[in-house]
Design brief:
Layout: H1 2-10, E1 21-24, H2 30-37, E2 43-47, H3 50-63, E3 70-72, E4 86-92, H4 101-111, E5 112-123, E6 129-130, E7 135-136, H5 145-156, H6 174-187, H7 194-203, E8 206-211, H8 219-228, E9 230-237, H9 243-252
Parallel strand pairs: 1-2, 1-4, 2-3, 4-5
Antiparallel strand pairs: 5-9, 6-7, 8-9
């Protein structure tokens, strides 16, 4: 919110209703509704999960907002929005679920205006706790039997997520629950550190104006990193007349 307000002031005090905002990976659109309630009428959300989008459409209707504010991404992570459309694109705990991050950043670049900005929050790769399974250190290990064994150990001592988030584990034995958790960690999580994501954004012509929790940090920042286990990238799109086409061609190769 603070970042968007700074953007508005920098852009000659553009009104809230005229700022175009996108929540990439919006879930059922709670943040979209939140922004609309505060006067940001042109706030949209996209997600790859049809179930959460369907639930979100119901939420929007109940609030009296247009159902066109939420959209299902296609199988390649593409949106239906035109090029250079959004002033501000943000994501919250999304990038760690994306296997092909290049396609996503390329699409974000395509739909972001020249000098449009972004705010992206994602779990730190080296944070001690895996935030989906609530098990320490498992995401540090390779996606092989070592990780699976550690998950089984935590399940055996009762350290595992519980209903209602993991309904598929109800009444299952420890071996089956371990299999479910392991498969999720392998197929649904892809942790990257700040420098790797920064490199991808720069590759697609974004200027990364700030990222928190760099490798070279002092003790106080190290402790905060250990506790919070989140990273932030603030981005700004730098475009030329042919940059969008150039990066589409690069992805196709």
């Amino acid at each position: 919110m603070i970042k968007i307000e700074k953007y508005r002031k920098k852009k000659h005090k553009i009104s809230r209703k005229d700022v175009k905002i996108l929540d990439y990976g919006c879930g059922k659109g709670e943040s979209v509704t939140w922004f609309k309630e505060r006067g940001y009428n042109n706030t949209y959300g996209v997600d790859i999960n049809p179930i959460v989008i369907r639930n979100g459409l119901t939420l929007l209707s109940e609030k009296g907002y247009s159902r066109k504010s939420l959209e299902l991404l296609d199988k390649n992570g593409k949106t239906s929005f035109p090029e250079n459309y959004f002033d501000f694109v943000f994501s919250n705990q999304v990038f760690e679920h994306i296997e092909d991050i290049n396609k996503v950043i390329n699409e974000i670049f395509r739909i972001t205006k020249e000098n449009g900005e972004g705010f992206h929050l994602f779990p730190a790769k080296w944070g001690p706790l895996e935030g989906h399974l609530f098990m320490p250190f498992i995401h540090w290990l390779p996606k092989n039997h070592f990780r699976k064994f550690l998950i089984f150990f935590f399940v055996s001592i009762g350290l595992e997520p519980r209903y209602p988030r993991w309904k598929e584990t109800i009444n299952e034995n420890k071996k089956k629950r371990t299999e479910i958790y392991y498969n999720y960690s392998v197929n649904k999580t892809f942790y990257r550190d700040s420098s790797e994501l920064e490199g991808v954004f720069r590759k697609f012509n974004f200027h990364v104006s700030l990222y928190l929790f760099k490798k070279n940090i002092n003790i106080r920042e190290l402790i905060r990193r250990f506790v919070l286990s989140n990273n932030v990238l603030l981005t700004q799109a730098k475009k030329s007349s042919n940059s969008s086409m150039r990066y589409f061609d690069e992805v196709k190769k």
